[in-house]
Amino acid sequence: MERGKMAEAESLETAAEHERILREIESTDTACIGPTLRSVYDSEEHGRFMEKLETRIRNHDREIEKMCNFHYQGFVDSITELLKVRGEAQKLKNQVTDTNRKLQHEGKELVIAMEELKQCRLQQRNISATVDKLMLCLPVLEMYSKLRDQMKTKRHYPALKTLEHLEHTYLPQVSHYRFCKVMVDNIPKLREEIKDVSMSDLKDFLESIRKHSDKIGETAMKQVPGAQDLVDFSPVYRCLHIYSVLGARETFENYYRKQRRKQARLVLQPPSNMHETLDGYRKYFNQIVGFFVVEDHILHTTQGLVNRAYIDELWEMALSKTIAALRTHSSYCSDPNLVLDLKNLIVLFADTLQVYGFPVNQLFDMLLEIRDQYSETLLKKWAGIFRNILDSDNYSPIPVTSEDMYKKVVGQFPFQDIEMEKQAFPKKFPFSEFVPKVYNQIKEFIYACLKFSEDLHLSSTEVDDMIRKSTNLLLTRTLSNSLQNVIKRKNIGLTELVQIIINTTHLEKSCKYLEEFITNITNVLPETVHTTKLYGTTTFKDARHAAEEEIYTNLNQKIDQFLQLADYDWMTGDLGNKASDYLVDLIAFLRSTFAVFTHLPGKVAQTACMSACKHLATSLMHLLLEAEVRQLTLGALQQFNLDVRECEQFARSGPVPGFQEDTLQLAFIDLRQLLDLFIQWDWSTYLADYGQPSCKYLRVNPVTALTLLEKMKDTSRKNNVFAQFRKNERDKQKLIDTVAKQLRGLISSHHS
């Protein structure tokens, strides 16, 4: 009975399990149904399960039928879809079959591969052992390769560091290998190679900066920061580090300094034709600046390669040689513009080096020397300018026909004349063109002097003093010589001389304006202590006096030229009734000449007129008394008297205003009294009153009277053949002898 209960219980348990399986089949994805079905076949109740499955299928069929009846059309559609699924299921079956076949085939290859893998594992163990050995050697080889690459790319300092690591860190770990022994033996050679190559790079660097010093200097002279950036200093740094590491720093320092000293001497040697162009000086300065820019950078970027004492020594040498070269070459320069450009270049040179900390006071002191030379070249240039102005001048008053022309002249030269301003156009300035031209050229000279003083760090007083001294040289030497040369020219005419006197008078008046001009540009008042005064007034006075003297001389020469035309017949017996032609022409010349003297200062015109009259009187007296005239007649003396009267008439006519009454006639008083004495034969009065202040013939010298009397006595004796037969002639001859005897007595008593 218990067995029956147990069977029943088992039947119920099996039924429940089958029910679970059926629910699982209904609810589980078909792809995972395999395990479920396996559990059915693992038990022995699969027959009963099939019965339950059939029962369940029939139940579902009945439900399907019901549903189909209710949803017939849906059923039809489902059948159609099911047919399609059947086709796809067949394809899937075929694919599964094919996959299974391939899997079986590949499985054989996998077995073969597994065998091969076994062999590889064996090789791997061998390789691993080999790699472990190589890993010890590989860093050494890599380091050595790195060393070679560094040397190949000229990175010598890193190469030296690599060599140190290789020698002290890596090689000891693999010292039992033969290749390591080779490396160890090669290390000293590599060190020497690095040393030699770095020195070669240094030599290339030194040669490069020698060639490019002018470019470096040019950049620095443009006040451009970072001129040293044009240079790659790495060869110096590398070589310095390498020699320091190798314990040979001192050797390197000595070599570097020695080579740079040699280069300094080359740089400081100027080319022989440096003075010919500004570019020659510029290149010279650029090279020097470039040299010291490099050395200054080395001083500040290396520790001890060069020191301040070394730099100072080089700079002292450079200063002395540069200044000597500039003194020599600048002395050849005759162009003031080039000297001025040179001065500006020297200032730029000095200022540039001063920025780098080099003392440049000696250069500015030398510029003061060049200033004197500049002044000399300016004076030479302005000598040519003044010469051209004076040579091209027409020595005629400047005519103006309009207000614009008038203002133009007044704008060029400080001139004020109220009377002239009132005159209608056209009118004339009293001076000629050279007055405003000379005045403006003096101002241009002052400007040129001022240009040189710029940037020399001079005080206003020093600039003012420099300009005034240079201007004084221009006035007292250059302009004065130019005026004197014109005045002393052989072909200078009286008109030109008169105009020069007028011109210099106006230039003399303009000197105060030149003083003001200098004051305005220097801001130093003339009243300041030690201020140099302009000597223009003296210059123009001297020139005017020279012109006046030249007028007097020229007038006398003209008078002499007319007197050379005199052709007296000293033996004539005819009594003339008019003055000689040559004298009439001479008087006409004097009248026209003195008419030109209108604008001259009154004293000059009067002096010239008096000088001319005195010279004429003296020349006529000399003509009358000269030894070549051995005999003369009373008729000739009468003609001579007519000529003197013509001269006296000219003197009375007042050719130049300003003379008092008969002052000008006094020039001919000696001639007049001498001629009156002989023509009136008033010897008794002369002899009786001689020596008294009120004597009528006070100006007649007994020696002169005797000389002329002797000429007349000779005439009476030699030419009047029958004179001895005429009583009156004999009496006259006796009278002449008596007068001559008395004159000799006067002369001897006067001398005693």
Q: How would the global form be characterised?
A: elongated
- Structural class by SSE content: mainly alpha
Into which percentage range does the β-strand content fall? Answer: under 5%
**Helix amount, in percent?**
over 70%
The sequence of SSEs as H and E is HHHHHHHHHHHHEHHEHHHHHHHHHHHH
Measure the end-to-end span.
222 Å
Name the CATH architecture of the largest domain: Up-down Bundle
* Biggest sheet descriptor: 2 strands, antiparallel
Q: List the uncertain runs.
A: 716-725
How many separate structural domains?
A: 5
The largest beta-sheet arranges its strands as 1-2
Helix count from the secondary structure assignment: 26
Mean pLDDT: 84
Tally the beta strands.
2
Could you name the CATH homologous superfamily of the largest domain? Dsl1p vesicle tethering complex, Tip20p subunit, domain D
What is the fold named in CATH at topology level of the largest domain? Methane Monooxygenase Hydroxylase, Chain G, domain 1
Provide a concise account of the structure shown.
With 752 residues, this protein is mostly helical. The chain is 76% helix and 1% strand.
Give an overview in words:
This protein has 752 residues and is an all-alpha fold. Helices cover 76% and strands 1% of the residues. The protein has helices spanning 2-27, 34-42, 46-70, 72-152, 156-170, 178-221, 234-245, 249-267, 278-301, 308-330, 336-355, 361-392, 403-412, 418-422, 434-453, 460-487, 494-509, 511-522, 536-563, 581-596, 602-625, 634-652, 669-680, 683-689, 702-719, 727-751; strands spanning 399-400, 427-428. The chain has a two-stranded antiparallel ribbon. Helix 12 (361-392) runs parallel beside helix 16 (460-487). It starts with a helix and ends with a helix. Mean pLDDT is 84; it is low at 716-725.
